[in-house]
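Standup notes, structure subgroup. Blocker cleared on the DQA input:
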Amino acid sequence: MKVLVLNGPNLNMLGKRPKEHYGSKTLAEINELIVKEAAGQLDLEFYQSNYEGDLVTKIQESLSYDAIIINPAAYTHTSVAIRDALEMFLGVKIEVHLSHVDDRDDFRKINFIREVCDVCFSGKLEVSYLDAINYLKK
Ligand code: DQA
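Run returned:
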């Protein structure tokens, strides 16, 4: 199963972002945990960008994959473009967040991504990503 793990803006700065929301692991450390959790059962590709268009292009280039695990970060709350790109993707779509986005600022309750995804894992820091991996393994 070919899986794209896609991360949006500022997630390359994990480790330096507020720990009460995002924990202390870097993105590289989280990606290592994801690889271990997949235990060779998933064919993983990792991509991070701070640019909305890059994320859209990456989704377009991955339409033949079986699944996308996406943390769109701030674009969750603003991006019709990412929402529309995900809508074209016919595989499994999993929205992931480190923090519990629904219990934070009001502007984070606006979510363009949720309705085009199959499932969302949030609020468990890096474990949200591992829950996504286990969802795909099942
Ligand atoms: C985030 C939540 C978003 O609201 C925020 O803009 C992020 C990260 C999360 O993983 O908790 O950058 O997607």
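Discussed briefly. The pocket of DQA is lined by residues 10, 71, 73-74, 76, 97-99, 101, 108 (CB under 6 Å).
Next: hand off to the docking folks.
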